[in-house]
Amino acid sequence: MVPWLSPDEPFPAVERALGASSGAPGLLAASADLLPSRLIDAYRRGIFPWYSDGQPVLWWSPDPRMILRPDEFKVSPSLKKTLKRVLREDAWEIRVDNNFAAVMRACATAPRHGQRGTWITGDVIDAYSTLHRIGDAHSIEAWLGGERVGGLYGVALGTMFFGESMFASVTDASKIALAALVAHLRRHGVELIDCQQNTAHLASLGGREISRKAFIAHVRTHVNAAPIPWNFDKAVLADLLGGRGTPDAFLPAA
């Protein structure tokens, strides 16, 4: 039985989430509210909201968890060529937090293979926009010729980045934004990006699954670290073109 949370009721332990044999593996709880304080508490515990319009707010903590280590980000030959062009051509820009809500709206309307509609409703945009105003959520945006053509947004707590959604209106624009984010996080020693659930697209970029136990252990330590700065431009992409770096063995055994 999935518990229904009243506004002041804490989340149950993540180990109580539904298992793989259920119809909704990882589902932990449901509620009527999506308050910013509830959101922050959720991310600090390795929990995220995901639901369809008309449903209650559904809270998830899947096992295993999809993550991307910045040092494991895969730069294919074609993406490397694209990044070199972005660095070379003045028409390309990376802007951070230029218009957070606009990026969310673009993600909401982006077509998704096998999906109809979106969970990024007006209430969701309002809640995450509040997190953005207090400095806990950020957008990374790819611009071409003065137009936003791709981007992503997520929640940043300490030295953890929780990715939420991406969009692109021209080829590879979301990958360019992700590459810029990865390079920035590498510069500041961030070891893990939460990708929530497994997709072939994320796996192609270096994402992989780890156990929930390993993920939660990492989150508990890193959300309490000093926050990193959030100002950078496309120059960070050069970091991905000059070498792969040395991976760190930071995660507990899965």
UniProtKB/TrEMBL annotation:
It comes from Paraburkholderia acidiphila. InterPro entries: Acyl_CoA_acyltransferase, Leu/Phe-tRNA_Trfase, Leu/Phe-tRNA_Trfase_C, Leu/Phe-tRNA_Trfase_N. Its EC number is 2.3.2.6. This is Leucyl/phenylalanyl-tRNA--protein transferase. It catalyses: L-phenylalanyl-tRNA(Phe) + an N-terminal L-alpha-aminoacyl-[protein] = an N-terminal L-phenylalanyl-L-alpha-aminoacyl-[protein] + tRNA(Phe); N-terminal L-lysyl-[protein] + L-leucyl-tRNA(Leu) = N-terminal L-leucyl-L-lysyl-[protein] + tRNA(Leu) + H(+); N-terminal L-arginyl-[protein] + L-leucyl-tRNA(Leu) = N-terminal L-leucyl-L-arginyl-[protein] + tRNA(Leu) + H(+). Keywords: Acyltransferase, Cytoplasm, Transferase. Functions in the N-end rule pathway of protein degradation where it conjugates Leu, Phe and, less efficiently, Met from aminoacyl-tRNAs to the N-termini of proteins containing an N-terminal arginine or lysine. SUPFAM superfamilies: Acyl-CoA N-acyltransferases (Nat). GO terms for biological process: protein catabolic process. It is found in: Cytoplasm. One of its GO terms (molecular function) is leucyl-tRNA--protein transferase activity. It comes from the Bacteria. Belongs to the L/F-transferase family. GO terms for cellular component: cytoplasm.
